[in-house]
């Protein structure tokens, strides 16, 4: 392998030398011919064959020497400005292929290399950083999915075992069966959200823009939770402007409102209050969902739109941390804006701004 490499290097060097030799010979021959012709005409000199033979030999020797000098200079230049940078990028690329996403290539001095290499190095470093982020997300995704699936599976397994007990009272049987159903529904919801989020992130869902009344959609989505707020004795307050029409994907926006309402009722204690408002400006429709629930600290609020992130580290509250990530992705797709204001122990306010035209 090494001998083959050396042989290739020798052939490459000889090829460069031959190129410089031909170029130097052509230029020198042309210059010498022009010089001697002009000289003989101006001074009316007659050049003998002996003089021409000596001149030709000297010229040939100079061509050989100049070609060698040019080849050596070009070889040194290539090693310093091209091969060294290319070797560093190649070595870093091999590490990247092996899974080392921390590798970075140091930019070269402008005097030592062509500026194009620094642009390549900059792009390479950005690619390595992005791949590292993707790998981290992939690892976190697998860990979070495993964790979230483990809990309902354990619940289903435990209740399934209890259901096999002989002479089980009807009341207990119904309780355990409900536990299995709830756990399976939670897993199904998580899988559904994962698929939706994956399709959104991979742009497999394209918005179907239609014009519709946003206030009517909000009311319809809110009424789906009537049993929830009545059972929990949560007060509902609405201030929804009429005839606020928007051009957006109604189905995607439905996911946004359902997730925001679900979270509001989930974290608002019995006797609390949930407020939904809709205001319109010349170019935007602004929806606010306000609850008097547990609220969030600034540290938690900074991460709530991340996949699988849950402010309740104990996972005591039902959920899988995908709802708000789905909401954020939908809002981004329709070119809207979403923000949250929250105070721990007092509640949260989610604000969604949608373009009307």
Give a concise summary.
The chain is an alpha+beta fold and 357 residues long. It has helices at residues 2-43, 49-97, 115-163, 170-201, 214-223, 226-231, 250-267, 298-301, 323-333; strands spanning 210-213, 235-240, 245-248, 273-280, 284-291, 337-343, 347-355.
Written overview of the protein:
- Helices cover 62% and strands 13% of the residues.
- The protein has helices at 2-43, 49-97, 115-163, 170-201, 214-223, 226-231, 250-267, 298-301, 323-333; strands at residues 210-213, 235-240, 245-248, 273-280, 284-291, 337-343, 347-355.
- The strands form two sheets. The protein has a five-stranded mixed sheet, with helices on one face. A two-stranded antiparallel ribbon has the order 1-3.
- The longest helix has 49 residues, at 49-97.
- The chain is elongated.
- Residues 313-319 have low confidence and may be disordered.
**Secondary-structure-derived class:** alpha+beta
Percent strand: 5-15%
- Indicate the CATH topology of the largest domain: Heat Shock Protein 90
| Largest sheet: number of strands, sense, barrel closure | 5 strands, mixed
Overall number of domains: 3
Pick out the low-confidence regions.
313-319
Mean pLDDT: 79
Please identify, by name, the CATH architecture of the largest domain.
2-Layer Sandwich
Please give the CATH class of the largest domain: Alpha Beta
Output the strand order for the largest sheet. Answer: 2-4-5-7-6
SSE succession: HHHHEHHEEHEEHHEE
Separation of the first and last Cα atoms = 66 Å
